[in-house]
Amino acid sequence: MPSELTADHVLEFPGGYTRTTGPVIGRFLTELRDRRIFGVRTAEGRVLVPALEYDPATGEPVTDEWVEVGPAGTVTASAWVETPREEHPLDRPFSWALIKLDGADTALVHAVDAKVLPPGTRVRPVWRETTRGHISDISHFAPEVTKIVSPISTKYRLKAGQSLTKFLEAVKNGYFLGCRCTTCDKVYVPYRASCPQCGNPITDEVELPDTGTITTFAINNLPDPRAPEVPFVSAYILLDGADIPMIALVGGVPAHQVRQGMRVRAEWVPEEDRTLSMSNIKWFTPSGEPDVEL
To answer: Which residues share a beta bridge with 270?
Structure first.
């Protein structure tokens, strides 16, 4: 078979295609050159942007009343361009968007330097350094600033009081120190100097074991340097002999197997590595005892 016959052609106007703008479009482009956006009002009172010579809804000529709009506007619809072409206004991925400028009743199509553009996004024009009376005098639109990220760091020093010092000294020695209120007979841990229920001073110290029961727990899916793995479990653990639970990590068991009523035991770091800190307890791990009904 004979090869397919093809021919390449170019249709062009030497020097460019020239047309007169007329008073309406000419005024619109002149205002763009001066970095202003104007719309024209129709006989029915609507403001057209971009300006047109005739009302597209009725076909009637527009009035000679001009209204300055924007410069900000609201995105009504958009389409993402992953790979820009040479003739596109931006050399990076961008969105084409319908933008209804403040004060206008119609929307214009322009590029927005953003990927995520839900309807309702507020945008503002970014003008070119040199303007010449063309829609491309607006290089593109950019979303308004709606949030800022400010690095925040606060340094402070916490000095342990007598009660906390006593409790941490006990933890360093491998046991939990609680206290008993002689008025309400409640046993609290950590150790404290006054009863949170009745407010009376507490003087009776109680040494508590490192075993207890999980009363409630949460499965965490965000990394934590103290946790054995992700997901990990943080739980309220009621130590044997105490009347209020304390919060701690749970390890040595898959997160989905942790349950209320599970019996656990503290897993301590080696004695030579202990300090005045709760990090002396790595976490609580199942003790193997039968669950407790709560």
So the answer is: none
Helix (H), strand (E), coil (C) string for 191-204: CCCECCCCCCECCE
Beta-bridged to residue 155, according to DSSP, are: none
Q: Are 143 and 155 in contact (CB under 8 A)?
A: no
Domain residues for the domain of 233 are 162-286
Coil, strand, or helix at residue 264?
Answer: strand
What is the DSSP pairing of strand 138-143 with strand 176-180?
unpaired
Asked whether 224 and 279 are in contact (CB, 8 A), the reply is: no
Q: Which amino acid is at 202?
A: I
- With DSSP H G I counted as helix, E B as strand and the rest as coil, what are the percentages for the chain, rounded to 5? 10, 30, 55
Q: State which of 84, 114, 143 marks the end of a domain.
A: 143
Same domain, 44 and 110: yes
Amino acid at 130: T
| pLDDT tens profile 49-106 | 999 999 999 999 999 999 999 999 999 999 999 999 999 999 999 999 999 999 999 9
